[in-house]
Amino acid sequence: MRFAIVDDDEKIRRDTEKKISSYYGRENVSCFLFSDGDEIIRSIETGFTYDAVFLDIEMERTDGMSAAREIREISKGLPIVFLTSHTDMAMEGYEVSAFRFLGKPVEEDKLRKTLTDLELLIKKDNKITLTKDGEELVFPVKDLIYAEARNNCVRFVFTREEQEVRMKLGDAYDMLRQAGGTFYKIHRSYIVNLARIKKVNTTDVLTDRGELLPIARGKAPDVKKALLEYIRKAGR
Prior knowledge:
The chain is 35% helix and 31% strand. The protein is an alpha/beta fold and 236 residues long. The strands form 4 sheets. It has a 5-stranded parallel sheet with strand order 2-1-3-4-5, sandwiched between helices. The chain has a 5-stranded antiparallel sheet with strand order 10-9-8-12-11, with helices on both faces. The chain has a 3-stranded antiparallel sheet with strand order 13-14-15, covered by helices on one side. β1 (2-6), α1 and β2 (30-34) form a beta-alpha-beta unit. α2 (37-45) packs parallel to α3. The protein is elongated and about 60 Å long.
């Protein structure tokens, strides 16, 4: 995950970075710190991409609301989380499609909830591209129920269709994790979308579409743990 933190108060910048890094682990997140609205605008204009921007509203030079309006000219979908102690800014925030308002200093519980909701928003729109017969086929990650290894191919089972593509299951797993999907390798031949699991048994999982998929021997506790962690984060 890549976040921009914009605040003219260095203490607030560092504190927010520390709390985000504590939530994800430093090896899993990158925070880029800016002291002014102009700095984040220039960064985005030059091609830097972020999963979300944490933006202070009150800054001496370019304030957060002005910066947000310019960001919206460049990127319509970039989530903006305002850092402020003024709830009366909510209407203006609505005009720039603010994702959320957080008070300063940022409370850890509210920050964790915001990060969880951001992950769900980002993952919902993620897509994967499968190459078959010289064509590139694009599918939403959330629509994939499971993937199955078949000889030298992988069978991708979506909610409305199936596609069989020549590739290794390990490569498919890497692709799905990079796309941000909630997937888990339950067997040497199966990868399942945790969001589509209805029940976990000692030998198999039941998907919400009624398929029974085998779990590798002794791996059921790990599958249950992964599913519980997904449920905790997703609030399912």
